[in-house]
Amino acid sequence: xxxxxxxxxxxxxxxxxxxxxxxxxDTSVYLSVDKVTAGIFLEPRERTVLPPGMAYRGVxxxxxxxxxxxxxxxxxxxxxxxxxxxxxxxxLVKLAPCxxxxxxxxxxxxxxxxxxxxxxGDMTTAEAVVLTNVDVTLTDGQYAAxxxxxxxxxxxxxxxxxxxxxxxxxxxDEVPFQLRRWVKAGGRVLAGLERRREREIELFFENVxxxxxxxxxxxxxxxxDIREGES
Length: 231
Prior knowledge:
This protein has 231 residues and is an alpha+beta fold. The protein has helices spanning 2-25, 61-71, 104-107, 112-133, 140-153, 155-159, 162-168, 175-179, 191-204, and strands at 31-32, 74-79, 85-88, 91-94, 184-185, 188-189.
């Protein structure tokens, strides 16, 4: 009888283990969402070291709201357009499909406040790029618009962009022309990227009129793919 009881106990433990394991490997439960991976996650994860005396400025609430609306909130783990495991406001969990091996805190989903915390943490990567590459004084709106842009296209693309050059020349009238170029992904012009660039322009020129003049002669207006950057 004693051995029978031990056998039953072992069997119950094995069943529980299998049941728990199934919870983690049933990949059919993960949504596939046609969302582009944020560019900051597709670059080496080295952290930019801010120079002595420089501190993170923080993206103000209106800027965070822009990124929230453009990324959209998904409380559960999902696979994005590239089949990368993602959660919340585009927070990349890993560069592979969801398979149940993700950190425990993500397996049952996240709340919206938790998602915002993830976004604000991720945004510091974009902030570091803007802080260490822009040489001119920016308003809160200009800073937030550029941080959202970097979040979307990646720091390397921003560093090599004509947009950064015109910003550092204080040629802000040319900013709309340059932002509107970055509307392609995977070789296709995406309506979502067109909307995002217009929202960034509105934020960059918050409380002032958006320039309506024609671009200077010779300005390159060719569309740019956010995954390839300018050639």
